[in-house]
Amino acid sequence: MKIFTTKQDLKSCLSEFKTKNKAIGFVPTMGALHEGHLSLIKKAKEKNDIVVVSIFVNPTQFDNVEDLKKYPKTIENDIKLLESVSCDVLFSPSVEEIYSENIASEKFDFDGLEHQMEGKFRDGHFDGVGTIVKTLFEIVEPNKAYFGQKDFQQLQIIKKMVKKNRLPVKIKGCPIFREKDGLAMSSRNVRLSNEQREIAPFIFKTLKEVRKKFGITNISEINKWVENQFKKQPLLELEYFTIAEEKTLETAETKESNKKYRAFLAVFAGKIRLIDNIRLRN
Ligand code: PAF
Q: Which ranges of the sequence are coiled-coil (predicted)?
């Protein structure tokens, strides 16, 4: 695997592939890689000639300084994992390399997607995500880019950005990868204490129950039920639970048969914030 830390070196390596018309698959990450990331890389390997992974903990998408400071950094292990799935190129730039002197986000209009859920609770988060993903797309110029559905709102926002800016890249959303006990894989999971880790599968268990209830119960009853379930769990504090339409991500109050819905939630286990979601069937 080739490793680059500067845009220039990466671009000159990739230009060789581009002149040969090779398809480039791209998986942007913030490192602390796990099986979920590896599943995206494997998918990218299947569908492209070469795969580029970036590892960059993007400061502009963090609304919480402590969360940024404590974001796990495991570069040596990440390199081993990338080699184990035959990743071709790793781009791991410094903050200065990406932002120079000005560590700030561009302002985006994602047609309202940014005002829902994560956008309500993490100020400026999606401007930060849009800024870094657009910047990385400009550097790597991939044919296809792969994102996990755990961050479903992020995935929809990136699709919107690509469409609005007519960026020449296809965005591929990939299924959520879960631990055996159902906990959605996340780089933040390593920060959970043993006690928090033990209780965390409750999140997916609740979502699966929501999926069952969705066919037979109205949405406001489901909302109340979820809130009550979390009230009984002192180690998990529910930040939000919402059933939303997949396209607009607007909170749904009633079901319409021609629309697709998902249930989304964010939960604090101590200071560690976990998100998850599940597709619902009418
Ligand atoms: O999902 C992530 O890990 C990050 O938000 C991303 C897409 C790599 C941008 O920093």
A: none
Phi, psi of 22 (to 5 degrees): -80, 140
Was 36 annotated as part of a binding site? yes
Q: Is 185 annotated as a binding residue?
A: yes
- Calpha distance 151→76 (Å, rounded): 25
Which residue among 37, 42, 125, 273 is the active-site one? 37
Distance 29 CA to ligand 1 centre (A): 5
Q: What is the mean pLDDT, run by run of 10 residues, along the chain of 282 residues? A: 98 96 98 98 98 98 95 97 98 98 97 97 97 98 98 98 98 98 97 98 98 96 98 97 97 95 98 97 80
Provide the pLDDT for residue 230: 98
Same fold, 2-174 and 187-280: no
Tokens of 271: 């200071």
b or e along 248-273 (b: 16 or more beta carbons within 10 Å of the residue's beta carbon)?
A: ebeebeeeeeeeebbbbbbbebeebb
Please provide residue 269's backbone torsions phi and psi, each rounded to the nearest 5 degrees. -110, 100
The pLDDT of residue 281 is 87
- How close is the Cα of 153 to the center of ligand 1, in Å? 12
**CATH assignment of 2-174, among 3.40.250.10, 3.40.50.620, 3.20.20.80, 3.40.50.2000:** 3.40.50.620
- Residue 71's pLDDT is 96
Strands 89-91, 2-4: parallel, antiparallel or unpaired by DSSP? parallel
Active site residue 125: no
Write the single-letter amino acid at 62: F
Specify whether the CB–CB gap between 159 and 91 falls below 8 A: no
Domain locations along the chain: 2-174, 187-280
Name the phi and psi angles at 252, rounded to 5: -100, 140
Query: Residue 17 has which token pair?
Result: 């592939």
